[in-house]
């Protein structure tokens, strides 16, 4: 397959490029600040020119405004990048016969549901980030017939700041840290997600799929497990969200059901604890050396 990836310098984009290249695909990775192949996805003319010159089979859009709290104040930029840009991508892909895979989020849900969310459950985002991401999904659905939207959540992995790396970097200098214990989700390893994305592309899947690691946790559970795996003595103290107020409201319980993914691919996603172990094992050496993962 000939694959064009936008946002290739991000946490997920980097892994998608790696997995696709490993599978023998012709991969072109672009990003807004990538000097060799810059592509700003808010620029419809540049998108069209890239598609005409590269003629990919798939465009995988990993670019987004991902600073959830930043979206609350930088609203126009968030709408431009998360809501309108996916529409530009969809229309250009439709015109030039390119399949589009777009990444979305559990934050399209309000998080009040006890059971895991399925792909057909109604979206009701509570933050600007969630609203813009949902508007991006709608723009994709309206702009192109063959689309694949993958909703995921709570990503960790190399090549980008994430909750696990933040916690480990804090924990090495502190005796105790307080972490929110009343928000639930499924921590997801960027490498597992990238493999799942490549599999869906290979199967020619279309529509919306939820993809995340198996099992669920609170941020407290995730922090505690990561600190245990690194073998630090730091105490992790569970606190309610009310004790750690942030600008953007978060869904309290936005666990995603991956049943549709499992039925389409015959593959179970790995349990988050196992994948967290792989991430930490793989990057622990780097962590011990520099204190950064
Ligand atoms: N991280 C999570 O926990 C999480 C959870 C659920 C869903 N998602 C979704 O997963 C996708 C990938 O997220 P991620 O965590 O990999 O994000 P990320 O690490 O922030 O990467 C996003 C990339 O997009 C680039 N970018 C920014 N503006 C751009 C533009 N105008 N044109 C082209 N590229 C641009 C960024 O460059 P700069 O850094 O230079 O701005 C960055 O390299 C996103 O759709 C996100 O909404 C993420």
Tell me the count of domains: 1
CATH topology: Rossmann fold
Question: How large a portion of the residues is in β-strands, by DSSP E?
Answer: 15-25%
Ends: how far apart? Answer: 32 Å
Describe the sheet with the most strands.
Answer: 6 strands, parallel
Number of helices: 10
What is the CATH C level class, in words?
Answer: Alpha Beta
Overall average pLDDT: 96
User: How are the strands of the largest sheet arranged?
Assistant: 2-1-3-4-5-10
Structure, described:
- The radius of gyration is 19 Å and the shape is globular.
- Helix 2 (44-54) packs parallel to helix 4.
- The chain has one domain (2-160, 186-216, 249-272): NAD(P)-binding Rossmann-like Domain (Rossmann fold, 3-Layer(aba) Sandwich).
- Helix 1 links the parallel strand 1 and strand 2.
- The chain starts with a strand and ends with a helix.
- The strands form four sheets. Strands 2-1-3-4-5-10 form a six-stranded parallel sheet, sandwiched between helices.
- With 293 residues, the chain is an alpha/beta fold.
- Helix content is 43%, strand content 17%.
- The structure holds NADP nicotinamide-adenine-dinucleotide phosphate.
Features:
two-stranded parallel sheet; 10 helices; binds NADP nicotinamide-adenine-dinucleotide phosphate; Rossmann fold; six-stranded parallel beta sheet; single chain; alpha/beta; 293 residues
């Amino acid at each position: 397959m000939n694959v064009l990836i936008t946002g290739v310098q991000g946490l997920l984009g980097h892994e998608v490029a790696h997995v696709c290249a490993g599978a023998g695909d012709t991969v072109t990775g672009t990003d807004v600040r990538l000097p060799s192949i810059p592509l700003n996805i808010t620029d419809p003319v540049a998108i069209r020119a890239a598609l005409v010159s590269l003629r990919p089979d798939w465009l995988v859009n990993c670019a987004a405004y991902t600073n959830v709290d930043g979206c609350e104040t930088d609203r126009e930029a968030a709408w431009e990048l998360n809501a309108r840009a996916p529409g530009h991508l969809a229309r250009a892909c439709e015109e030039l016969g390119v399949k589009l895979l777009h990444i979305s989020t559990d934050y399209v849900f309000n998080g009040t549901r006890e059971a895991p969310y399925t792909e057909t459950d109604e979206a009701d985002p509570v933050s600007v980030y969630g609203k813009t991401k949902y508007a991006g999904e709608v723009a994709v659905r309206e702009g192109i017939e063959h689309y694949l939207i993958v909703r995921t959540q709570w990503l960790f992995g190399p090549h980008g700041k994430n909750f696990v790396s933040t916690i480990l970097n804090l924990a090495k200098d502190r005796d105790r840290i307080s972490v929110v214990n009343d928000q639930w989700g499924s921590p997801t390893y960027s490498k597992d997600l990238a493999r799942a994305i490549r599999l869906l592309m290979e199967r020619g899947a279309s529509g919306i799929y939820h993809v995340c690691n198996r099992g669920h946790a609170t941020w407290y559970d995730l922090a505690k497990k990561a600190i245990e795996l690194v073998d630090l003595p730091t105490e992790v103290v569970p606190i309610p969200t009310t004790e750690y107020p942030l600008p953007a409201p978060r869904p309290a319980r936005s666990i995603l059901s991956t049943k549709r993914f499992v039925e389409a691919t015959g593959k179970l996603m790995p349990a988050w604890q196992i994948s967290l172990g792989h991430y930490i094992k793989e990057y622990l050496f780097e962590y011990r050396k520099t204190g950064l993962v």
